Amino acid sequence: MIKTSTPGKLYLAGEYAVVENGNPAIIAAVNRFVTVTIDENTDRCSITSKQYENHLVHWERINSRMVVDDRDNPFQYIIAAIQVTEDYVQALGKPTQKYHLSVNSDLDSGTGKKYGLGSSAAVTVATIKALCQLYHLNISKVQLFKLAAIAHFSVQGNGSLGDVASSVFGGLITYCSFDRQWLSEFLHKITLPELLKLEWPRLEITPLQIPPVLRFLVGWTGSPASTSQLIDKVELKKGKHGIHYERFLHDSNKCVREITNGFRQNNIRLIMQNIKKNRELLQSLSQMAGVPIETPQLTRLIEIAEQFGGVAKTSGAGGGDCGIVLIKSDCDIAGLKAAWRDAGIEPLDLSIYNY
Ligand code: PMV
User: What class of enzyme is it (predicted)?
Assistant: First the structure.
C-alpha cells in the first residue's frame, strides 16, 4: 500500500498577472491535503474518490492510451496524471502495473462545497507522487512539477500552474509562470524524459518566509467560484484595454517584488502597503474586464479584517471562495474571527505548510 498527501494552496499576490508568461505571484501551501492511496493487490485498474461518494471507474491501457469504462467520470485530473506518469514510465522502458487508486480530500467543506484551495492541482500532484513510489521513479521536485504541469495543462489549458508548483514545493513561494506556448509546441516533438531534463523558459520558483510577527488568516465566503471561467472572461476583455492591461501587469509585478522584498527584509510596512495595493489592482482589473473578482461578501471580509488592523484581499481568481489577511500577532485575532462569523464568513483554521 502506498499513501501520499499534498497540500492545497492560496494566492497572496500576483493573481491574474501570473497567467501571462514570465509574471510572478506569491503562493502559500496550506495544511489541508489531498491524499492518494495505491493498492497493488488487484488484477484490474480502478479509481475511487470519497468526494464523489466512492464513484468507481475501471480503466485499461490500450495502445498506450487509457480507456475508461465511464466517459462522464469526475476524475479528469487523476486520469491525466496517470496517463502522463505512465507515458514517462514506458518511455523509460519499464512495464506498467495494475492497481486500485483511491482519493480522499480535505480541501472541500463537509457539505461538499470546494473551498477554492486548489484541489485539482493537489490531486494531480498527489497521484503522480504516489505513482513515482509505485514505479520507483527517483525524480527531483522540479521534474515532479513538470510532470504535474503537463498533466494539469492537458485538462485546464488556461491557468498559470502556480497551484501545481505550490502543491509540489509547499511553503511560501514566488512562482514565475513558464511559457506554456513553448510547452504545447515541444510536448510532442521530444520524449518526456528529454522534456523533463530541459530548462523550461521563464519558470522560476523561489522559497520565501513570512516574518514571524505576522499571522496569515483565511476566511471562507461559502460561495464557490469557477477560476477557469473567470480567467477566460479576463482573457476575452484584455485586448480591448491594452494599455490599462499592460499597466495592471506592470503594477502587479511591482507589488509582488515589493512584498517579496518585505518578506526578505522583515519590512512589515512594505508588505502591508503592497497587499493593499494588490487588492486595488485586482479591483481595477475587475472593473476593466467586467468580472466580479471582489464580491460583496469578500469586500465585507476585507473591511472587517481592516477594522482589526489587518490587510486583506481576495485570493486567487476571487468571485467567491476565500479571502486572505496578514495581521500582526498582537492584534485581536479572536475578535476578528468572531466578527467574521457574525457576518456569515467562516474562518478557516489554516497555516502555511512546509514539507
Ligand atoms: O482561484 P484560484 O485560487 O485557483 O487562483 C487562480 C489564480 C489566477 O491567477 C487567477 C489563475 C492562475 O492559474 O494563476
Answer: transferase
What phi and psi values does residue 99 have, to the nearest 5 degrees? -165, 160
Residue 111 clears pLDDT 80, i.e. is over it? no
Distance in Å, CA 19 to ligand 1 centroid: 8
Q: Residue 353 domain-assigned?
A: no
Cell of 168: 509540489
Who has greater pLDDT, 114 or 173? 173
**Distance (Å, rounded) from C-alpha 163 to C-alpha 351?**
16
Give 238's pLDDT tier (boundaries 50, 70, 90). confident
CA of residue 228 to ligand 1 center, whole Å: 8
Looking at the fold, whether 202 and 249 belong to one and the same domain comes out as: no
Residue 109 binned pLDDT confidence (cut-offs 50, 70, 90): confident
pLDDT at 44: 94
**Which is the closest atom of ligand 1 to the Cα of 234?**
10
Q: Which residues line ligand 1 (CB under 6 A)?
A: 11, 15-16, 18-19, 116, 118, 159-160, 162-163, 227, 231, 316-317
Whether complex ipTM tops 0.95 = yes
Per DSSP, the residues of 113-129 read: -B-SS-HHHHHHHHHHH
pTM of the full predicted structure? 0.96
How far apart CA 275 and CA 22 sit, in angstroms, is 21
* Same-domain check for residues 59 and 119: yes
Residue ranges of alpha helices (H) inside the chain are 76-91, 119-134, 141-155, 162-169, 180-186, 192-197, 227-238, 242-265, 268-289, 296-307, 333-342
Claim to verify: residue 160 and residue 259 sit in the same structural domain? no
Which phi and psi (to 5°) does residue 161 adopt? 75, 15
82/104 same-domain check: yes
109 plus 164 within the same structural domain: yes
pLDDT in tens, 328-339: 999 999 999 999
CA distance 50 to 216: 30
Q: 109 C-alpha to center of ligand 1: Å? A: 19
Neighbouring C-beta atoms of residue 329, cutoff 10 Å: 9
* Structural domain for 283, as ranges: 210-348
